[in-house]
Each structure stands twice: as structure tokens, then as C-alpha cells.
Design goal:
This protein is an alpha/beta fold and about 280 residues long. The chain has 2 domains: about 55 residues, Winged helix-like DNA-binding domain superfamily/Winged helix DNA-binding domain (Arc Repressor Mutant, subunit A, Orthogonal Bundle), CATH 1.10.10; about 180 residues, Rossmann fold. The chain contains 10 helices and 15 strands. Helix 7 links the parallel strand 5 and strand 6. Helix 2 packs across helix 3 and helix 8 runs parallel beside helix 9. The chain starts with a helix and ends in a 29-residue tail after the last strand.
């Protein structure tokens, strides 16, 4: 029988893939009782990872709520790996690279081997864990107030630290794009991302096709603030034309079938669920 953490990780993965699943279906697929699933979902709901409504389990995503990191890592994992590989080609040895709290940057961090030496500046704990004690990587962790829901540091101290630096390159994503304007669910997120944009020489936005159908509350700025926008080829043609018409440089990456070899995950679990390597900082 699966242990509770392993079972709960599998529940997150299944619900993320489907968007919504009923309790009895989860019980059947995992080979446990509906009561066990109820307990697991209650635990995950308390962590704001999933929500339970009328016997169905759903991921939490709204204009006022940023889905938990574990769910975001599992969602569109293949697209994020593909986009990360494309973004990695724009890195050069010796650069200072700023990475935001997007889960695509977790996949990017795993691809830095061979592109060192490089300095990585980030406020996102999962990226810090990936690069902890990595040879050839100079890691600068941005402090501030830790926000558990984002697994990242934010606030005035974070913004001040960012504005005291300069980066050659910024790799960033966004929660939603509406009318070619990037949006996020948190004012704190807007504050530190605005600072990252201001202190970086070259700015790359990396977004999968689903970001063009989502909504979020606070506007960061137009996509034209970026030097390059990288999207996958599942992005609707009309959106690609709108991006080109705006004058922004656009790179469209084909979504080839997932590779047989998964990205490395040092603790042996599914990379999309937990990126934390053994021995890294907590």
C-alpha cells in the first residue's frame, strides 16, 4: 500500500492532468477506500493544493489565488521542459542570470550543467535547491519574507536586494496573459518581478500556451517589455500573429513527444512533484 505522502502526490498528479476527478474514481485508481481519499484530499486542501466540491476534487486556480508549487510543477510539465531547453540556448558562460519564481525555471536550473560558470540570482526556493552546491554555479539567494504558498521570498527586502544588483539576462514567466499584458495574482509578485525587469539587460518571457487562456488580477506590464517571448507551438496561431504584430521577437518551440529519459530528480520521485534533492537546504 502506498504511504500517505506518495499517495497524495499521485492524487495531485492525477487531478492536475484531468482538472477534476471524483472521490470514488480516485479511490478506484489508487486502490484505496473513498474514506482514505477524503482524508488525503482534506490534507491537501488544508495546504491549499486542491479543493473538494460535491464529491469532486479540483485544482485551485482563480484570479485571486496562485496554485500551489507542487501543482504548478506537475501542470504542463512537458511543455515547461521543452520551453526550458529553448531558453537554455540563450545562456552564455560567465553571465549573471536572474530567475523568477516560475516553475519553468526549475526545469531550466536542471539544464545549466555545461553552461557554467554562471551566476544565478533567484528568490525561488526550488531553484535554489536545484543549484545548491552545484559545481560552476555561483548562487545568489534573494532574501526577504518567505511565502509558503509560493515557496519564495518576497516583499520590500527582496525588492531592495534585487535593485542593488544587475543581471545580464532575466528568464521569467507569468501566470496569465490578457490582451498581451502579463498578469499575476499577487501584488508582492508584481513588485519583485517589476524590479527584476528594471535591473536586467536582456529579458526573456517563457510561457506555455495555457497562459493565454487564464486570468489573474494584477497587471505587470505588456509583453513588449521583453526582448524575446518563447512559446510552444500549441499556442493558437491568432495569438502568435498578435505577438508578432506587437513588434516583440517571438520564438515558437515545437512540442515533440516527451523523451524516454526524464529530467534528473535526485530523490528518486517524480520530478514534476518534488524537485528537492537530498542534502539541499530546506
Amino acid at each position: 500500500m502506498r504511504k500517505a505522502p506518495e499517495r497524495q502526490a499521485r492524487i495531485i498528479e492525477l487531478v492536475t492532468e484531468s482538472g477534476s476527478l471524483r472521490i470514488d474514481e480516485l479511490a478506484t485508481r489508487l486502490g484505496v477506500s473513498p474514506m482514505t481519499i477524503h482524508r488525503d484530499v482534506n490534507t491537501l486542501a488544508a495546504q491549499q493544493l486542491l479543493t473538494k466540491e460535491r464529491g469532486a476534487v479540483k485544482t485551485m486556480q482563480s484570479a485571486l489565488f496562485e496554485t500551489g508549487v507542487r501543482v504548478r510543477l506537475a501542470r504542463q510539465a512537458h511543455e515547461k521542459e521543452t520551453l526550458a531547453r529553448a531558453a537554455a540556448t540563450h545562456l552564455a558562460p560567465g553571465q549573471a542570470v536572474m530567475m523568477d519564481d516560475s516553475t519553468t525555471c526549475v526545469y531550466l536550473a536542471r539544464l545549466l550543467r555545461g553552461r557554467d560558470p554562471v551566476t544565478v540570482i533567484t528568490n525561488f526556493v526550488p531553484v535554489m535547491r536545484e543549484l545548491w552546491k552545484r559545481p560552476g554555479i555561483r548562487l545568489i539567494g534573494l532574501g526577504g519574507v518567505y511565502h509558503e504558498w509560493a515557496d519564495a521570498f518576497m516583499g520590500g527586502m527582496t525588492v531592495s536586494a534585487i535593485r542593488s544588483m544587475h543581471a545580464d539576462l532575466l528568464i521569467m514567466s507569468t501566470s496569465a496573459i490578457t490582451n498581451l499584458v502579463c498578469h499575476h495574482q499577487s501584488e508582492d509578485t508584481i513588485s519583485f518581478k517589476r524590479a527584476m525587469l528594471d535591473v536586467s539587460t536582456r529579458r526573456i518571457l517563457v510561457v506555455d500556451h495555457t497562459k493565454f487562456t487564464r486570468q489573474a488580477l494584477y497587471a505587470l506590464g505588456p509583453v513588449t517589455e521583453f526582448d524575446l517571448v518563447i512559446v510552444d507551438d500549441a499556442t493558437p496561431a491568432v495569438v502568435q500573429e498578435q505577438l508578432r504584430a506587437s513588434g516583440v521577437a517571438l520564438e515558437v518551440v515545437p512540442l515533440v513527444p516527451p523523451s524516454a529519459v526524464a529530467l534528473p530528480s535526485p530523490n528518486g520521485t517524480a520530478a514534476a512533484i518534488d524537485s528537492r534533492p537530498a542534502g539541499g537546504p530546506v
